[in-house]
Amino acid sequence: PHNARVAVMGASGGIGQPLALLLKESPLVTQLALYDIVHVTPGVAKDLSHICTKAQVTGYMGPETMQDCLTGCDVVMIPAGVPRKPGMSRDDLFNTNASIVRDIADAAAQYCPQAMMCIITNPVNSTVPIASEVFKKRGVYDPNRIFGVTTLDIVRANAFIAEAKGLDPTKVKVPVIGGHSGVTIIPVISQATPGVSFKQEEREKITKRIQNAGTEVVEAKAGGGSATLSMAYAGAQFAFSLLQAMNGKEGVVECAYVKSDETDAKYFSTPLQLGPSGMLDNLGIGHLTEFEMNLLRNAMPELKDNIQKGEDFILKQAE
Ligand code: APR
């Protein structure tokens, strides 16, 4: 759509605000709908509305405004939730964030069932299955339109590998597949462009750094939350790719966590070709080295558990 309405659910938060700012700067966005439950939300919208770019900004505060917010949306970005504190894993966030994503997905399934759903709220490995089950229950499920945003893993892999090899960070592209937490994150360094080579020890170290990069930020913020600015950057990059593809641009590829037949986990992130109706084609895992095959084997049990936990959260409520 050349007139894209984009919602940010959780717009007043650490991720939501800079994400909204980046979206406000984009010529691809004509309406920016900012939803949150905190009282500063109309002010955040007012503040952004003073920027002299095309997008019209409207703030929506509280659950009774969700219908107005979501109606007509083409893309829904969801960073609503509580962030991680030191010592917490992404999975510890589960109970609070699972309900938040369930409720927002349920409203989206009613008021903008055709929208692209971009889920940032962690644990993404579980919140994407949650949103998917909610859409199924409402009879409007389209697996090509529900994405877990894993772009930050790719952004980090690009940055760390560029740094290690002295390359231009804007020119390095490293696919990252699997899930979005710890060992489920699988950097595929062998498929990086330009090609890079590492000694085994160095490869293991940088792989671990990519897998634990979220924790690096959580610890450095010392109780003040998890990654926000880099996540907002990554979320905006994903949204822009999606909007370009929705506008007919061909050959747009991004990794994201989606319903997938690539492995025996029901959801898996791989490079995807994006099109006017979301995922056009899953480009698959491609060739993995023995080292990467081991990462994949290592990822599967936790990833499958996370997915099951998400599905059970909705299915148990149905009983
Ligand atoms: N509906 C809408 N917004 C909500 C809801 C809800 N039910 N519950 C909480 N929020 C809002 C909060 O009011 C807050 O403005 O979500 C925002 C979250 O912002 P922060 O607390 O600053 O958290 P942030 O760092 O942005 O992280 C949010 O993204 O990466 C994930 O793990 C992270 O799950 C966490 C989420």
Output the keywords.
single chain; about 325 residues; alpha/beta; six-stranded parallel beta sheet; three-stranded antiparallel beta sheet; globular; binds adenosine-5-diphosphoribose
Report what the structure shows.
The protein is built from ten helices and eleven strands. It has 319 residues and is α/β, with parallel strands linked by helices. Helix 1 crosses helix 9. The radius of gyration is 19 Å and the shape is globular. Adenosine-5-diphosphoribose binds next to helix 4.
Q: Outline the low-pLDDT stretches.
A: none
Query: Please, how many helices?
Result: 10
- Widest sheet, order of strands: 3-2-1-4-5-6
Instruction: Give the class from helix and strand content and strand pairing.
Output: alpha/beta
Mean pLDDT: 96
Largest beta sheet, briefly?
6 strands, parallel
The percentage helix is 40-55%
CA gyration radius, whole angstroms: 19 Å
* Heteromolecules bound: adenosine-5-diphosphoribose
Percent strand equals: 15-25%
Q: Termini, distance in Å?
A: 39 Å
* Total DSSP E strands: 11
The ordered string of helix (H) and strand (E) elements is: EHEHEHEHEHEHEEHHHEEEH
Question: Strands, helices and their partners?
Answer:
Elements: E1 4-9, H1 16-24, E2 29-36, H2 41-49, E3 56-61, H3 66-70, E4 75-78, H4 94-111, E5 116-119, H5 124-137, E6 146-148, H6 151-165, E7 176-178, E8 185-187, H7 200-211, H8 213-220, H9 229-246, E9 252-259, E10 267-275, E11 278-282, H10 290-318
Parallel strand pairs: 1-2, 1-4, 2-3, 4-5, 5-6
Antiparallel strand pairs: 7-8, 9-10, 10-11
Helix pairs in contact: 1-9, 4-5, 5-10, 6-7
